[in-house]
């Protein structure tokens, strides 16, 4: 039984004042004193439902030009979970069954209102449950298609909208525009101020971007600090204007966190959605490529994807390589070659020297490093590949016993990205213990350009490693404009003179002079020098005369598989 003070809101659909009086009397007898409104036409009911707030509808079945079936339709239209009970004087069984199928919760004869109060009590209770369930389902549905942090559409919803736009482009030949947006300084704020600041930045940027989006367009957070914009019925000119406006808006924005202002910028990749495309994945891939091109070309700008753009073609090739390299790391498809390094002077004959070189097995093909390393460097995979190479090299030195010999030096390349790996040194030490390697047998090679790009991290890593007994070689020396001035900062043991100078030193006096200078500077610093790309005996002889310590190249020994 419902308590008397329960002032439920009841909508009575009835054209007879006498029947309304009888209903209210029956309700009061049952302890219900409703806040009610009586309507007797479709227009009046529609107006009442639009104001909402009703707990239940009690309706007659047959009124002039207005039946309970229409009452049910209007109720479902405006208040889907609102319970409806039909109270009628004349209603056949077939009509009653059809009314129940149409959504009525119960039907009661006016001549027998004994079931009215129990029916209302039941429907109020079950209606509350139905409403809560419906709200939960609605919330789950909303969450499935919206980003919980920014309240924007999520990637799933964006891809669905993108698929519809692509379908429209095929059917109507109409163009749309896809923008792929990436915040340039997000990681700095996230790392320096924490994730709470990063989340706040994303929320504020989302509101900022929303100001420039038309009602028919779609703005979505695609993940992390990446956003997508779908501009429907848009050409290149308008799309670029919108993208530039978004970049300008973000450039002028500042996040104030703990009284400190932080600036960010936006890079935008743009793709015209036309019938030339066949999938959303291709659209997103090209937009992503264009966005990265915008970053490479200075950030805070807009780049339109163009198939004849060399940089985008290269990046697309790199992205294909990235998937292949990920698979190769999972399937142990990397293996090692080695290339011997020989002494040019009598004092250098103090043990075997060779450099380990990584290769990739793709089916029956052997892929050289020049084909995949640029992509691996661009997408941050080189630290993982470096670890794999170190493991394979140490394993070989353990199996052969060469890693425990009193003489010999084995060169292993490290990429610039590995110096940002704070765990690399401890990883190497664990492998030393695992494979029982003498650290002094290992010489890590770093290129001049990567060393100077991360100078502080490089110096710290080298100093730490040399204290443990490892040696270091500076590769491609002479290729940089500041080679000599930076040499004092790098505590290395070997200089490997850039092969581009070695190859032509017999015919080019400038190359000869550079090689001679590199050798003299190296010796002045107490280092051993190694000439790369030595391709014939004449070059080897001239290098010996210049006083270089070691030589490496096809004229000395070709790379061979490591067995």
Describe this structure in words.
α2 (42-51) runs parallel beside α3 and α11 packs across α12 (369-378). Strands 15-16-18-19-20-21-22-23 form an 8-stranded mixed beta barrel. The protein has a 5-stranded parallel sheet with strand order 2-1-3-6-7, sandwiched between helices. Strands 9-10-8-13-14 form a 5-stranded mixed sheet, with helices on both faces. It is α/β, with parallel strands linked by helices and 563 residues long. The longest helix has 30 residues, at 116-145. The chain has 3 domains: 9-143, Response regulator (Rossmann fold); 155-307, Reverse transcriptase/Diguanylate cyclase domain (Alpha-Beta Plaits); 331-561, Alpha-Beta Barrel (TIM Barrel). It has 20 helices and 24 strands.
CA-based shape? elongated
Which oligomerization state do the chains in this entry correspond to?
single chain
Remind me, CATH topology of the largest domain? TIM Barrel
Regions with pLDDT < 50 over 5+ consecutive residues?
1-5
Average the pLDDT over all residues and give the rounded result.
Answer: 87
**What is the end-to-end distance?**
88 Å
Strand residue content: 15-25%
CATH C-level of the largest domain: Alpha Beta
- The Cα radius of gyration reads 38 Å
Helix-residue proportion: 40-55%
Strands of the widest sheet, in order across it, are 15-16-18-19-20-21-22-23
| Fourth-tier CATH superfamily name of the largest domain | EAL domain
- The tally of strands reads 24
Features:
3 domains; alpha/beta; Rossmann fold; 563 residues; single chain; Alpha-Beta Plaits; 8-stranded mixed β-barrel
């Amino acid at each position: 039984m419902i308590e008397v003070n329960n002032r439920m809101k009841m909508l009575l659909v009835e054209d007879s004042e006498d029947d309304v009086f009888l209903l209210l009397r029956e309700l009061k007898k049952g302890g219900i004193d409703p806040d009610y409104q009586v309507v007797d036409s479709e227009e009046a009911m529609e107006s009442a439902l639009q104001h909402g707030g009703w707990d239940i509808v009690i309706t007659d079945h047959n009124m002039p030009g207005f039946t309970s079936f229409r009452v049910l339709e209007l109720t479902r239209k405006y208040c889907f979970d609102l319970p409806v009970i039909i109270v009628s004087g004349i209603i056949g069984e077939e009509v009653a069954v059809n009314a129940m199928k149409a959504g009525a919760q119960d039907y009661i004869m006016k001549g027998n209102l004994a079931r009215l109060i129990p029916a209302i009590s039941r429907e109020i209770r079950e209606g509350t449950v139905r409403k809560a369930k419906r709200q939960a389902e609605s919330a789950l549905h909303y969450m499935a298609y919206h980003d919980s942090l920014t309240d924007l559409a999520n990637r799933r919803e964006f891809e669905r909208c993108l698929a519809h736009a692509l379908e429209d482009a095929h059917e109507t030949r109409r163009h749309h525009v896809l923008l792929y947006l990436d915040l340039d300084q997000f990681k700095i704020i996230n790392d320096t101020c924490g994730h709470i600041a990063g989340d706040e930045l994303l929320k504020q940027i989302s509101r900022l971007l929303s100001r420039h989006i038309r009602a028919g367009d779609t703005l979505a957070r695609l993940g992390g600090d990446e956003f997508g914009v779908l501009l429907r019925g848009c050409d290149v000119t308008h799309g670029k204007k919108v993208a530039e406006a978004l970049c300008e808006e973000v450039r002028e924005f500042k996040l104030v966190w703990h009284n400190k202002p932080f600036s960010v910028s936006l890079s935008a990749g743009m793709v015209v959605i036309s019938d030339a495309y066949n999938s959303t994945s291709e659209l997103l891939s090209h937009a992503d490529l264009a966005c990265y091109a915008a970053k490479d070309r200075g950030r805070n700008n807009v780049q339109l994807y163009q198939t004849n753009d060399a940089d985008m073609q290269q990046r697309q090739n790199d992205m294909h390589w990235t998937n292949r390299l990920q698979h190769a790391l999972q399937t142990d498809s990397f293996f090692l070659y080695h290339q011997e390094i020989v002494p040019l002077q009598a004092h250098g004959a103090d043990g075997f020297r060779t450099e380990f070189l990584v290769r990739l097995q793709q089916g029956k093909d052997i892929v050289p490093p020049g084909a995949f390393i640029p992509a691996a460097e661009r997408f941050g995979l080189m630290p993982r590949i470096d670890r794999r190479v170190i493991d394979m090299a140490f394993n070989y030195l353990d199996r052969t016993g060469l890693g425990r010999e009193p003489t010999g030096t084995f060169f292993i390349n490290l990429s610039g990205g590995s110096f940002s790996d704070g765990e690399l040194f401890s990883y190497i030490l664990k492998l030393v213990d695992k494979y029982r390697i003498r650290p002094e047998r290992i010489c890590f090679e770093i290129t001049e350009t990567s060393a100077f790009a991360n100078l502080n991290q490089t110096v710290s890593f080298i100093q730490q490693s040399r204290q443990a007994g490892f040696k270091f070689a500076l590769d491609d020396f002479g290729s940089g404009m500041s080679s000599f001035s930076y040499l004092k900062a790098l505590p290395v043991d070997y200089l490997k003179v850039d092969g581009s100078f070695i190859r032509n030193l017999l015919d080019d006096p400038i190359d000869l002079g550079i090689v001679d200078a590199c050798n003299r500077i190296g010796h002045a610093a107490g280092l051993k020098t190694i000439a790369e790309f030595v391709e014939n005996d004449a070059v080897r002889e001239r290098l010996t005369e210049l006083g270089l310590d070691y030589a490496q190249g096809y004229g000395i020994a070709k790379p061979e598989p490591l067995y």
